[in-house]
Specification:
The protein has 380 residues and is an alpha+beta fold. It is built from 13 helices and 19 strands. It binds guanosine-5'-diphosphate and manganese (II) ion.
């Protein structure tokens, strides 16, 4: 789950990370009011969960509260990378001397959190990583020891931070680490962390991703979820306890088991196709769940074929077959469907499906090949 900038900054602030004064507004009048309170010179920032808002025109400086109102009107009417802007953050404008990047995320290969910093802040960090990877300093954090003071000092030196800022940088990095650890975040990022003209360190931007699997112990964070920005299909899937992630391909996948779902996606790619989604219907999925899954898959208009790959263990194949038939009756799919059923009651499952004009397959390879063929408009 990703947090909006204003939410991330509120959390940062609670941990002692300095942020600009400011508040979030849902309409231009509110934005004007906030700008007045802040003395007129403000930055109006679209609150959407994508990077590069600045380049897209979603971050604008206003010299007066009047102008803040006008810019808020403009920005609140925008769509940035397909996402409608529903809120703007109105922050006091600051004069920037230097922009730094500071973030913490998980480093899977070393299985440790990694702190990353760069003197080239403000721009896309992926861009820096591609262009000049040596400009990004990385420090691994021992999860038991936490971020050590000497590590932060090393980072300060490596990014050529002037010495007067070391002390505040070290406590800021320590605070960011505590945010990361205590909120079960998978990413905390300040880009840019700035040195202002009046010689302060300030977190001008904030980004946080929280591990969905930890949300059960962060009720306060869970309720910050912004349903507006999630794909409707993903919200629907969560309601049915389905793990669904929308992708860009044309072959819809319905699979039981996360590992099998990954393998199915891999093998589709191996035979030249692209999966339209990841979907794990889980063990013991009944007919209603299967129907919901099929509805969700077919709500994606890119889908040209559906591959159903079920290993029947806990989920019996006949039960799945009945679910598929019920779902077909309800959803009336207009794309070919390929089904591979193996396991408990597979025979009966296949018999049930035989009349429903579904393409069946014995092996996963066969199923993948057939899906790719029919997705391209060929015969199975
Ligand atoms: P992003 O483009 O979505 O990452 O949004 P940011 O919050 O990082 O803002 C992009 C850029 O806008 C920053 O790198 C700054 O250069 C600039 N910016 C943001 N707030 C201020 C401000 O208060 N004053 C000035 N002068 N520039 C700002
Ligand atoms: Mn930024």
């Amino acid at each position: 789950m990703n947090l909006h900038e204003y939410q991330a900054k509120q959390i940062f602030s609670r941990y002692g990370i300095p942020i600009p004064r400011g508040r979030v507004a849902a309409n231009p009048a509110e934005a004007k009011q906030i700008a007045e309170e802040l003395g007129g010179k403000v930055v109006v920032k679209s609150q959407v969960l994508v990077g590069g808002r600045g380049k897209a025109g979603g971050i604008r400086l206003a010299k007066s509260s009047q102008e803040a109102e006008e810019l808020a009107t403009l920005i609140l009417g925008m769509e940035i990378k397909g996402l409608p802007v529903r809120k703007v953050l109105v922050d006091e404008a600051v004069s920037i001397e230097k922009e730094i990047y500071l973030g913490i995320t998980n480093d899977r290969s070393s299985r440790k959190p990694v702190l990353m910093a760069s003197a080239e802040g403000g721009v896309d960090i992926e861009e820096v990583a591609a262009r000049s990877p040596d400009k990004i300093i990385k420090i691994l954090i021992d999860p038991l020891l936490g971020l050590r003071e000497y590590q932060s000092r090393d980072v300060a030196v490596s990014i050529d931070l002037p010495k007067p800022f070391w002390r505040s940088f070290i406590s800021l990095a320590e605070a960011l680490w505590r945010v990361y650890r205590e909120t079960d975040a998978t990413l905390v990022e300040i880009n840019p962390l700035v040195i202002t003209n009046d010689q302060r360190l300030l977190a001008l931007d904030g980004k946080m991703s929280i591990d969905d699997n930890a949300l059960f112990r962060h009720a306060d964070l869970a309720e910050k979820r912004d349903l507006d920005v999630e794909a409707p299909a993903e919200i629907e899937a969560r309601k049915y306890g389905l793990s669904y992630i929308k992708l860009d391909g044309e072959i819809g996948c319905m699979v039981n088991g996360a590992g099998l779902a990954m393998a199915t996606m891999d093998i589709i790619k191996l035979y030249g196709g692209y999966p339209a989604n990841f979907l794990d219907i889980g063990g013991g999925a009944g007919a209603d769940k299967v129907a919901a899954a099929l509805r969700i898959i077919l709500s994606d208009t890119n889908v040209k074929a559906v591959l159903i790959n079920i290993f029947g263990g806990i989920t019996r194949c006949d039960e799945v077959a009945r679910g598929i038939l019920a779902a077909i009756g309800e959803v009336q799919p207009n794309v070919p469907m390929v089904v591979r059923l193996v396991g408990t009651n597979a025979e009966e499952g296949r018999r049930l499906l035989a009349d429903a004009q579904l393409i069946t397959a014995e092996t996963l390879v066969e199923a993948a090949q057939k899906s790719v063929q029919v997705a391209r408009g060929g015969a199975a």
